[in-house]
Amino acid sequence: MNFIKKFFNRFIKRLNMSQENISPNNHIEEYLDYYCSLFCSPKLAVLLKGEWGCGKTWFINQYREKLKSQNKKSLYVSLYGVNSYSEIEDSPFQQLHPILASKQMVIAGKVFKGFLKGALKIDLNMVKMKGHGLFLSQR
């Protein structure tokens, strides 16, 4: 009987040790590894979905630390508290160009745009970027 207890306890210890090394989110980490190793960027983002408080932010912050230790850069966009699509669009630009996205530069850009529109009669809202060219929109 004592032998069975010892065997059972060893079995439980090994089982627990092997389970500690396997994350329930291992498949997500494997996909992120694959995604980050692609030679050509797919020009897409990865969205993590899950219940509130399940650890999405913690998980991605841990993964970003792993990337940082490999001298790889990443962009992080949180949808928490986002009120418009433009806030989502602006976030990567703000992370890539913090000086250009600063409040002072945004204000300077608006002043310059107002000057162009008022003094030179150029309305930048009429010019739209599409792909690799500029297109004027009709009124």
From TrEMBL:
The segment(s) forming the KAP NTPase domain are: 28-135
Q: What is the protein's given name?
A: KAP NTPase domain-containing protein
Q: Tell me the organism.
A: Mastigocoleus testarum BC008
Its taxonomic placement starts with: Bacteria, Bacillati, Cyanobacteriota, Cyanophyceae, Nostocales
